[in-house]
Amino acid sequence: MQRRQMDPKISVSIVFVAAMFMSIMDGTIVNVALPAIGQQFHAPGTSVDAIVVAYLVTLAVIIPVSGWLGDRLGTKRVFLCALALFSITSALCGLANSLGMLIAFRALQGIAGGALTPVGTTLLYRTFPPAQRVQVARILNIPTVLAPASGPIIGGLLVVKLSWHWVFYVNVPIGIAACIFGALYLQELREPSTDHFDFTGFVLAGLGLSLAMYALSEGPDLGWATPGIIITGIAGIISLIAFVIIELRTEQPMLDLRLLSNRLFTSCNLVSFFSGAGFLGVLYAAPLFLQEARGVSALTSGLTTFPEAIGVITATQFAARIYPTLGPRRLMLAGLSLVAVMMVLLSFIGTTTNLWFMRIMIFFIGVGMANIFLPAQTAAFANISSQATGQASALYNTQRQVGAALGVAILSSVISGIGATYLNSHSVALPNYTAYHAAFITAAVLIIIAGAFALLVRDKDAAATMRRVIKKTNTEQVAQQSVATEAG
Fold this sequence. Notes:
By secondary structure, the protein is mostly helical. The chain has helices spanning about 10-40, 45-50, 50-75, 75-95, 100-125, 135-160, 165-170, 170-185, 200-220, 225-250, 265-295, 300-305, 305-345, 355-380, 390-420, 435-455, 475-485, and strands spanning about 420-425, 430.
């Protein structure tokens, strides 16, 4: 019996949302479990942090090569292999009986995670034509926003009710179901690709990004003046500069940096980079403020920051409808203005401020971010050909990862630089609200910088994505068929 075919747009959307939700949530859900892991393995905080760092470093190594792999081997094949590896390594992480073993499995998990997002994004953009790219952005928003917000809540419940092992086991059934569904219903999409593998570009990109991610993730904790951070940071920057110089002179580069000559693509990437840095920086600083300064539980903290996800999901539907009329530029500027104002208002929250005021502000930050994420993602790929989508997706996802790490690093450094606590006249350590307020103001500055780049976006450049998809009526279809028959 022949298997019934499914609309490719539906099958790609289902598998992508499931895989991305699992992958993105993994970052925040694991952070909640770190204290419990440290307790079981009798390891200090600096050692346990390696669980996160190992994942980020290997993730950074794979993202640049993901575009070449998808084009060379097929996006469906690479995506499903990455999904299967992510599921297997999640189970292995849960089964780990030593810290070293857990760190090694997390590194393998990062390899899978590094390929999932860019190759999955490529699948989406090659399935949906430019006029339907707004729908793609709506799909992308679901896991991108829900996963980071729900991770702390789910992670807290799993650690408290079961054990830290379950923050990894939870990925397994989702991954298995997505793999089976994808194997049955996804279509293979492959673009003409060169057999040439740019080994030099791969080494320089992997080395530069991994060192940079290490420095950004560990700098706030170990100190920016620490020799290890200085050496890795400088080495990472030098490697990335060398990568750019060599790739621009290479005929068949690992990452086609010439795509950055596309003004619209570059401007949208910069908007995404700085707005993502500010937004994810706040998602890091807000729970810290709630738990360390206000003294609330992890669950209350998660429920206080979760409204941003509701705001994004709600506003995305409206943003998608008005995008063809307003265009990306005005939509992004409106969203950035709202987010900047809300982040400034967060800096006025004190010791007795009702948390519902914070929830309302967080909700409107989500509303504003929906009007940034959707137009930036949609417009960025407006003029990118199907053949170049894999390369463009790798570049776009690279900046998002680095932007997220930069935002957390900057806000963490602001808090630690000012001091999260201070000693009163009785030498008792009290929370220093000024440090957190300064962090929220810093996030607002990052959003304002994103606004400056949004001014460079021209709606006419994104015209291909602003066409409304109009369904033809039966009468129109019959009329067109009649004209075609007469012409024949």
